[in-house]
Design a protein that fits this description.
This protein is of the alpha/beta class.
Length: about 170
């Protein structure tokens, strides 16, 4: 199963850039949504990451898991790859190591369960998705930072709130 990332309708350029960055580091595919209803996308792909906007910027990440009838809703702000490392970095291998630090370990099962079916999690990958505590900013619950080796490659996702909801048909 491939990681599918799409947007709400008529996304801004910044949101499209964020979706492409996320697809590059996760080894996934960005799906141009157009007028396609979300229900149709979810019928084709059992797990989808949807990026929604707030004032022209990525503001929500919705991780849909149709089989488990679960939705992980993240309220976010982001920094793009070009703002972190000034280049586009692609994960051609399509594997990533997930690391959790401090209090973020409480979310480990939630994220492992979502990403497990994509077959992208590997302890040997030089690409890392790190869940890091927010020590400075009280508005941020935690950060999701992407690395290649020890180099920060972005995007950086500041998670301000997280909710787990049930999906109703």
């Amino acid at each position: 199963m491939e990681v599918i990332i799409t947007t709400s309708r008529k996304p801004s350029q910044r949101t499209r850039s964020f979706v492409k960055d996320l697809a590059r580091v996760l080894g996934g595919k960005s799906l141009t949504r157009g007028k396609t209803p979300l229900k149709e996308i979810l019928s084709k792909y059992p797990k989808v990451i949807l990026v929604e906007e707030y004032r022209g910027n990525p503001g929500k990440l919705k991780l849909y898991d149709v089989r488990e009838e679960k939705l992980i809703l993240l309220f976010i702000s982001v920094k793009l790859q070009r703002e972190i490392c000034n280049k586009n970095v692609e994960n051609r291998e399509g594997k990533i190591k997930m690391e959790f630090y401090g209090d973020t370990v409480t979310y480990k099962d939630l994220f492992y369960n979502f990403f497990r079916d994509f077959n992208i999690i590997s302890q040997d990958s030089p690409f890392r998705m790190c869940f890091e505590e927010s020590s400075k900013d009280s508005e941020v619950l935690f950060y999701i930072q992407f690395y290649r080796g020890e180099e920060k490659i972005g995007p950086l996702i500041a998670v301000k709130d997280l909710k787990v909801l049930e999906i109703a048909d």
